[in-house]
Amino acid sequence: KIEDPVAGKISISSLATRQDLTGFCLIPPQVTFGVLKEGCTYATTVILKNVGVNFSRFRVKQPPPYTGLRVMYTAGPVAGLQVELEIEILAMVIGGKDTGGLEEVSHDIEILTETETLLLPVKANIL
């Protein structure tokens, strides 16, 4: 049992033992697109879930244009809910050298919350 001196309530909860009542988790924790055809656009959805009990805000640091990646989402507070992040990739080969037909794209998308920075690894092979 933990007494909240501000609200005057006693909380009986497994979450009450945690020091930090905010936090996010990514479902899935990484994105692997597999082999993509050059010139096509592909998309997948990642869930950003608020596992804390408090309102918490976040923002996504957009990847640089040369990666071909873009993250689309609705900004705002997330309280006990989840937000869908749509990860979109335009499959394009960077550079003029011959790589044997496959080029690997790998980038960590940064998601900045009020308490931490989450990294979402994204990988793809462009044919």
Automatic annotation (TrEMBL):
<protein>
    <submittedName>
        <fullName>SPG17 protein</fullName>
    </submittedName>
</protein>
<dbReference type="GO" id="GO:1990716">
    <property type="term" value="C:axonemal central apparatus"/>
</dbReference>
<dbReference type="GO" id="GO:0005576">
    <property type="term" value="C:extracellular region"/>
</dbReference>
<dbReference type="InterPro" id="IPR026173">
    <property type="entry name" value="SPAG17"/>
</dbReference>
<dbReference type="GO" id="GO:0003351">
    <property type="term" value="P:epithelial cilium movement involved in extracellular fluid movement"/>
</dbReference>
<dbReference type="Pfam" id="PF14874">
    <property type="entry name" value="PapD-like"/>
</dbReference>
<dbReference type="GO" id="GO:1904158">
    <property type="term" value="P:axonemal central apparatus assembly"/>
</dbReference>
